[in-house]
Specification:
The chain is an alpha/beta fold and 455 residues long. It folds into 3 domains: 208 residues, 3-Layer(aba) Sandwich (Rossmann fold), CATH 3.40.50.720; 72 residues, N-(1-d-carboxylethyl)-l-norvaline Dehydrogenase, domain 2, CATH 1.10.1040.10; 154 residues, Rossmann fold (3-Layer(aba) Sandwich). The protein contains 18 helices and 16 strands. The longest helix is centred in the middle third of the chain and has 32 residues. It is elongated, with a radius of gyration of 25 Å. The model has no long low-confidence stretch (mean pLDDT 95). Bound molecules: ligand SAJ. The site of ligand SAJ has 19 residues, from α10.
Amino acid sequence: MSYEQLLGKIQNFQANICVVGLGQVGLPTALIFAKQGYKVYGYDINELILKSLSNKQSPFEEEGIKELISQTIETKKFEPNNSLKECVENSDIVIVCVATPIIDITPNLSFLKNALISLSELNLKRKLVIIESSIPPGTFKDFVLPIITKNASLGSDFWAAYAPERLSPSLAFSEIQGTPRIIGNEDEQSGNLAKSLYQNMVNSQIFVTNSKVAELSKLVENSYRDVNIAFANEISLICEKYGADFAELVTVCNSHPRVNLHMAGPGVGGPCLPKDPYLLLNSANGDKIESKIIIESRKINDLMPLHISKLVTNALKSQRKSLTNSTIMILGTAYKGNVSDTRFSPSKEIIHDLQQKQCSILVYDPLTDETFGAEKIYNLDEENIQKCDALVIMADHDEFRKINPSIFKSMIKKPIIVDTKRIFNSTNIENLDMIYLSEGYLGTSNLFKIREIDS
Ligand code: SAJ
């Protein structure tokens, strides 16, 4: 097939697409392309994912995903398939969406490498290969292309581009289509083909640049957020020292037209932010890049779970409650609000730390069964609440925002609420004669007591 023929097929929704890796990026991507009219083959090395898709079930939660799976399988636009060979042979475009995690702080590109090696053993001639996974700078040119050009040369035999995903879990469909897309390429034809493909899916701007800028853009966006959250977290600790309310500070500071303070929190979790800064600082050829601000920010964010744990234990001690006999309820094991994903969730470290201090931990999260070794409860009825000495809100799920805090009055003695997401109004809670704490807010009545214990 010539370049012009492939371009025409893409523009007319007649190209077939194979998506490799049906995780939280690959599956929504495959489904949207299928909905737009492309025939999409979905491949994953995990047979369980393929099995659940064949039963029209989603392997994870995402608004609207089940309906889209049923719809696109019924119209035969989406076909989960366990033969990569068959998927690739039937496709004009291959999109790779496999995970690129870190081990400790070092990028682990083994999933990507394995996927690329498998692809290189197939016939990629006259096809367009797109990588969506987050990758260290230089990876597309120095790692991806050398593997897949084993039997073919870029531009004349096949085409390839880098198009990093930018979606936030729980908002996958709206963000895939609504967020501008960056395309990185090393030859003009590949850039044009990829651009015309994403133009048929994205209702927003498409930027075409070289592969290094595209790789950097993805990692810099997430590092930018991580650094800004670290700044907010550090300011929240400063607020504690001054006895100021961080939430109030954010409101007044952000009234300035050029200031955008982020929210402090119990730490930074999820599959991207704790990892991407390290991808940014480890180039594809093994060079380590130095950055004080990025590394310090990671450290600050990593320290927050233990800070929250300390707020909880200090509050218990201020009420003369022994840690051994205390029961703490954690609301949310997901890494953030309205997602079921628990990867790198700060709740894990808080639960483990409090358990080490001999506290009993109950967890309530309507979106996930993950308990991180604590005891799961299934509702917030009086029986469960009565068992608790303290409550820690770790995820701002919509369901938690609807809670009337007066239900916590039935807690043992004076209720302690540690609200790391500021879903409640501090004054309302204090008016109910409860102790209200957060990073950046030590409460009016307990400030000095808690400070003393801390020092
Ligand atoms: N968090 C804070 N304070 C804030 C915002 C977030 O503490 O002001 C915490 C959250 O609670 C969570 C963590 O940060 O633990 C990460 O949450 P997030 O919403 O910032 O990011 P992700 O990981 O869900 O999604 C990010 C997004 N990147 C940016 O916003 C720059 C998303 O657009 C990316 O596509 C995604 O990473 C990704 O896949 O890389």
